[in-house]
Amino acid sequence: MSESEPQTGHEAGDELEGRSFTGQSVRRFEDRRILTGEAEYIHDVTPPGCLEMAIVRSVHAHANIVDVDTSAAEDHPDCELVLTIEDLQESYNPQPCGLEGYEEWSLADGKARFVGEPIAVVVAADRYLAEDMADLVNVEYETLDPVVDGMDARESDTLVHEDAGTNVADNERIAFGDPDGAFADADHVVEGTYEWGRVSGVPLETAGVVAQYDEDGDSFHIDCNIQLHTLVDDTVYETLGRPADRVELNVPADVGGSFGTKIAIHRYCNLAAMAAEQLGRPVKFVEDRIENLQGGDMHCSERTYEMRLACDDDGTMRGLDVWFVDDFGAWPHYPVNQVLKPLSVLTNSYAIDDVVYEYDLVLTNKTAQTAYRGFGVDPHQYALEMLVDDAARELDIDPTEFRRRNLVTPDQLPYRIPSGNIYDSGDYPGAMDRMDEILDENERCEGGLLDPETVEQRREEGFYRGTQTAVLIEPGVSGSDWTDRQRTDDETIQNRSREDVAELPEHLRAEVKPDGTVLAWLATDSSGQGHQTLVAQLLADELGLLPSDIEVDYLDSVEAPTEYGSAASRMAVMLSGASVGVGRQLRDALAELAADHWGVDREAVSYRDGRVERSGTDDSLSLAELAELDDEARTHVSYDYEHPATGFPEFDDALTHKYPVYPTAAYAVNAPIVEVDVETGEVEVLKFYTLRDCGTMLNPMIVEGQAHGGIAQGLGAALMEEFGYDQGSGQPQAITMFDYLLPSTKNMPDIEMEHTSHPSPFTETGAKGVGEGGMIDAPAAIACSINDALEPLGVTADKLPFTAHRARKRLREAEE
Amino acid sequence: MSIEDTPHAEGRPTREISVTVNGEEVTREVEPRLKLSDFLRNECDLRGVRVGCEHGVCGACTVSLDGDTVKSCLLYAVQAEDLAVETVEGLAEDGQLHPIQEAFHEEHALQCGFCTSGFVMATKSLLEENPDPERDEIKEGLADNICRCTGYQNIYRAVDRAADKLSDDIEAVRTGADGEEGA
């Protein structure tokens, strides 16, 4: 396999003789405006008369706030407004939290719980002045001991929230099958402890808000780059104390990346909106990078796993016991269910019937977690694969062979895992075999990176090479009903029936414009995934038009129905289903309109390639002519595509019991070739081979782009990225990009990618979700490849990121 | 908002500067502390200059200053006085994308697009110095810019493609229809 050739792309206006656009690499509509600098991101939105906001933030991890002296700022002629907690409590509500019983105000209420927590806001004519004013606010603190370590937090006398009485905000233990029996019967029980560092998406564009208040309607218009604006708008309108239809959240067509992280920027939306209401003028806030890294509510999972695997002498995996602590920081924000999503791929690609899954969700004096690509699955896959490696070595079986023996086989698919989710389609052993072939042909040969002679020679020079393959599953297309599991009591869950399940569909609208082109409306937001292009190419096929005949726009939170939106590897599947539905609606509507116009039966007309024809005649009407005839908006249609799992009774059990349902299982077999310099501890990935299957590829160019990006983020999490904290003071140690290291061109190897295609039986087009791939599968793959490289020295990558410092520490320990 | 509308506190210093931006002279009264990136965005309305970190790591604000590639968040506007700034807005001509922009589009070298202006400007500088770079040279040349979406794979390809386009352009000029040697 050589580096894949550049895509044979098509422009949106190209004719494809006799072929459909679905499955083609149609180049993106979004690009031109971005490339020329014309795209309007939230940072570019500045209405006339707009003021700017700056935030006074806590300098301590844990401290009582004795006094907030705002007098110097308020007396200054450049200061337009100062808001403190008292102002908020007078007029507004606390923010909805991810768990019941936590009252979180948009500003610290009497106690600061993390460095960077907002204490006051100031507004001035521009950001420079606003920061001057922020400097004039004087906060008096009484410092408290911080809770910094997630494991210690469980037993600590120091409480982040005294009212809660504990730092363990949520815990659940779920047993599937008979794990006790499996562990008692098995020949071996292998244990391991694995740590996943605090990382996050760190999109290049920080959060931004422009809030405007309309006194006449007592309503808000808030432009912002929040993710899932139609789902999480409650975190804004409830806080502002207004009904949903008076708080309009509008997300620009272009958002500079999110990866899940911008789901939780509601604090900024709320503060800017409050300031706008108080002042009667637009207020803008742009988070700066230090605010973002230090206290932007945007870190993600930080987990310690203690895992056990029960297996027999012959290498059969019998039982799995998963226990972990996840350090959520100071507040349990919405993505608390990140601790549950791993249930959707509980046993990864292995057939294991008896499993126990338990977690402690703990609170500490750190910035709160938000979602990040993978939503808690990436650490699970990492820990599980580490355990599999450890077990293979303990059993003295080749790690690849050990995996192969336990893989779910093609004839078992669709395969129900113990937690009720179902893997749809694929060939896992075949993928392992193909990757073996690829490595044999390209690298385990003379002159290859894994040429045994070269590996031996490099080892003598102190550079240890290795690679390890595994089949890693990416759960795709989350349903929504399970996401409030932690706010639902056990009895309710026990007593639910299938009728109680409430799933959110995907909404899509389309209308014919006077010139005969089609305008479609998305009810979701986008941050680089190419949704406009995707919908245009899908609808082009449905309507027999060119993608360039279709324009795609966005609905705000009031116009759009409440729905899920862009997250959880959902959009390709949901939008393709919705496009098929809306295309059908529009064809029918146009045919009926034409039939009525001609005064004939519906059966006497047919829609074809952008026209309605009257059979047996030469009469036909174009879209433009039909639009002109349409005086009742009959050419405006909308469609709600039901979540695919709801149509298959196989999922009923998981849906009913609020276990995470992800009906598609894309998967990857990776072979990153790593080299560890044992003298410095530095790990280099020399090349990254990946074989991927996401069923039907709707736009291969976009699919590959998603995988490339996910792999890069996975490499960062495996080797470089970490929000460290000083264990004594709770001070964050990565508050600039000099400390929080993102992979650059210097760190990213060439990626060699190949695809297979096992279409999903559960989705309209056979597509599977791919948005979180790479991030889900690269860290585990890199860690296990390090295990392979360092196997002669008995060192494993049991703590990520496996930085040079950590590698050296482990190597020193191994030498002693 | 323009600086004229800004209410000034007593004694805040300002200075008048003239900067040539994408070929046009811009004269403004600015505070010495105004960053060049903010000057370009807010005073010149060039929003293709993106601000990602404001401490010189991410490269989203990369522009050309008198032919040097610089991160405009690390300079003050007053430092650009009497100099020529070129931003991504200056590349397309008469609605026609520059070959580098075309190549980025054709190779899907952008997703969210926030880093793209910086990468396009860095690529322009790289190819001016080295019209036919090897993969390692591309990696070296773009190491000052961060992308969080693409994993860089398609950016490498876009640079290759842009290099081909530009060398074709030069070749076309050199062997122009009238056979005259071009520059």
Topology:
The complex is a heterodimer of chains A (816) and B (183).
Chain A: H1 31-35, E1 51-57, E2 63-69, H2 71-74, E3 81-83, H3 85-91, E4 111-112, E5 118-124, H4 127-135, E6 138-143, H5 150-153, E7 168-176, H6 179-185, E8 188-196, E9 208-214, E10 219-224, H7 234-240, E11 247-250, H8 266-279, E12 283-286, H9 289-295, E13 303-311, E14 317-327, E15 354-362, H10 377-395, H11 399-406, E16 415-416, E17 422-423, H12 428-442, H13 452-460, E18 463-466, E19 471-476, H14 490-494, E20 506-512, E21 518-522, H15 531-543, E22 550-554, H16 571-598, E23 605-608, E24 611-614, E25 620-622, H17 623-629, E26 636-641, H18 652-656, E27 664-677, E28 683-693, H19 700-719, E29 750-756, H20 778-790, E30 799-800, H21 804-815
Parallel strand pairs in A: 1-12, 8-30, 10-11, 14-15, 21-22, 28-29
Antiparallel strand pairs in A: 1-5, 2-4, 2-6, 3-5, 7-15, 8-13, 9-10, 9-12, 13-14, 16-17, 18-27, 19-27, 20-21, 20-26, 23-24, 24-25, 27-28
Helix pairs in contact in A: 7-8, 10-20, 15-16, 19-20
Chain B: E1 15-21, E2 24-30, H1 36-43, E3 62-65, E4 68-71, E5 84-86, H2 99-106, H3 116-129, H4 135-141, H5 153-174
Parallel strand pairs in B: 1-5
Antiparallel strand pairs in B: 1-2, 3-4, 3-5
Percent of residues in helices of chain B comes to: 25-40%
Radius of gyration of chain B: 18 Å
Give a short account of the largest sheet of chain A: 7 strands, mixed
Shape of chain A: globular
Spatial arrangement of strands, main beta sheet of chain A: 3-5-1-12-9-10-11
Q: Which percent bin holds the helix content of chain A?
A: 25-40%
Number of E strands of chain B: 5
What's the tally of helices of chain B? 5
Q: How is the quaternary structure best described?
A: heterodimer
Count all strands of chain A and give the number: 30
End-to-end CA span of chain A = 42 Å
Shape label of chain B: globular
Low-confidence stretches of chain A: 1-6
Average pLDDT value of chain A? 96
